[in-house]
């Protein structure tokens, strides 16, 4: 079995896991068992994302899923976390998702946490009771792409939701006792909308109170609508200083009472990690030092998704 973690290709040997296409997972799930239960993304319309354009969204059959769980039971005894891929496994109907979690617990009793990507729609489709049941069956963390707290930006990137709805669904996950990790995108509003995007996103994060925030920097992916906008001059990438100023504005506007705020993804120019609110002033001082040229930034050739 060959697997390139993050964004990569997966190839199955005759007796391996049934991976299809590019395999995407959060950086924090690098050492997790990756169980592919869906193909693609149930939304798959975001202008900046090219991850699942080659896949039609489908839910994999139970025989294939069970076969992969049994393979993991034989060969992955040292991995204590499991991540459900592809893009939005939470959209799976409740009865089947519960079955998957029960089979994981049955065959992989050493797995301590199961995680999944979700979007506002898939969370909305689960009742509070559904989420409580999923937590009891082992679902420990949900990764939600927020991207922005600015409704104009969300509409422009075709996110298919509003800031208010993202807030409602994020709080719903937290209420169920499931950890919430959200991503936001630096640079997605362009130069003119940068300050508004940063402040609105900081406000949303403050109200949502996720356990983890991951700030990524937008990069142009060929073949996406955002790439077309960039080629036509309708969207312009911000430079390092502009991204740092946006990060500072967003971070300053984020007043979480607890949790981690991170911008240490491979796409970022300045890696930061702050336990909120303890590290807020320290990180603001670090960003200011970088803006003065006193802290080295990641060179462009090292940045990647």
Explained architecture:
By secondary structure, this protein is α/β, with parallel strands linked by helices. The protein has two domains: 1-118, Transcription Regulator spoIIAA, CATH 3.30.750; 146-305, 2-Layer Sandwich (Transcription Regulator spoIIAA). 35% of the residues lie in helices and 19% in strands. It is built from ten helices and 13 strands. It has helices at 62-75, 94-107, 120-124, 128-136, 151-156, 163-175, 194-208, 225-231, 240-252, 280-291; strands at residues 2-3, 7-11, 22-24, 33-36, 38-39, 58-59, 81-85, 113-118, 139-147, 179-186, 212-217, 260-262, 273-275. The strands form three sheets. An eight-stranded mixed sheet has the order 4-7-8-9-10-11-12-13. α7 (194-208) runs parallel beside α9.
Distance between the termini: 23 Å
Instruction: Characterize the main sheet.
Output: 8 strands, mixed
| CATH class category of the largest domain | Alpha Beta
The CATH topology of the largest domain? Transcription Regulator spoIIAA
Order of helices and strands: EEEEEEHEHEHHEHHEHEHHEEH
Portion in beta strands: 15-25%
Rg calc: 19 Å
What multimeric state do the chains show? Answer: single chain
What is the count of helical runs?
Answer: 10
Backbone shape: globular
Q: Which structural class best describes the helix and strand composition?
A: alpha/beta
The CATH architecture designation of the largest domain is 2-Layer Sandwich
Tell me the number of strands. 13
Query: Could you tell me the mean pLDDT?
Result: 93
> What's the number of structural domains?
2
Give start-end ranges of low-pLDDT stretches. 1-14
Strand ordering within the main sheet? 4-7-8-9-10-11-12-13
Helix share of residues? 25-40%
């Amino acid at each position: 079995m060959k697997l390139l973690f993050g964004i990569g290709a997966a190839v199955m040997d005759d007796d391996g896991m049934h991976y299809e296409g590019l395999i995407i997972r959060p950086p924090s799930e690098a050492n997790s068992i990756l169980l592919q239960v869906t193909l693609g993304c149930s939304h798959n319309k975001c202008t900046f994302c090219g991850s699942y354009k080659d896949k039609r969204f489908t839910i994999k059959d139970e025989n294939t899923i069970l076969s992969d769980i049994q393979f993991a039971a034989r060969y992955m005894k040292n991995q204590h976390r499991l991540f459900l891929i592809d893009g939005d496994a939470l959209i799976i109907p409740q009865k089947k998702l519960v079955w998957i979690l029960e089979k994981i617990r049955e065959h992989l009793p050493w797995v301590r946490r199961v995680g999944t990507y979700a979007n506002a729609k898939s969370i909305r489709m689960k009742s509070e009771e559904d989420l409580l049941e999923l937590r009891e069956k082992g679902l420990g963390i949900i990764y939600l792409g927020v991207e922005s707290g600015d409704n104009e930006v969300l509409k422009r990137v075709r996110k298919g939701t509003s800031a208010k709805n993202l807030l409602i669904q994020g709080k719903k996950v937290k209420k169920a006792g499931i950890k919430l990790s959200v991503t936001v995108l630096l640079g997605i509003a362009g130069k003119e909308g940068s300050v508004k995007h940063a402040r609105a996103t900081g406000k949303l994060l403050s109200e949502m109170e996720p356990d983890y925030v991951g700030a990524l920097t937008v990069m142009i992916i060929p073949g996406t609508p955002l790439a077309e906008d960039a080629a036509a001059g309708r969207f312009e990438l911000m430079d390092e200083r502009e991204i740092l100023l946006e990060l500072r504005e967003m971070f300053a506007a984020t007043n979480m009472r607890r949790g981690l705020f991170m911008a240490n993804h491979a796409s970022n120019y300045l890696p930061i990690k702050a336990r909120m609110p303890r590290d807020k002033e320290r990180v603001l001082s670090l960003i200011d030092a970088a803006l003065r040229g006193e802290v080295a930034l990641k060179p462009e050739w090292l940045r990647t998704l």
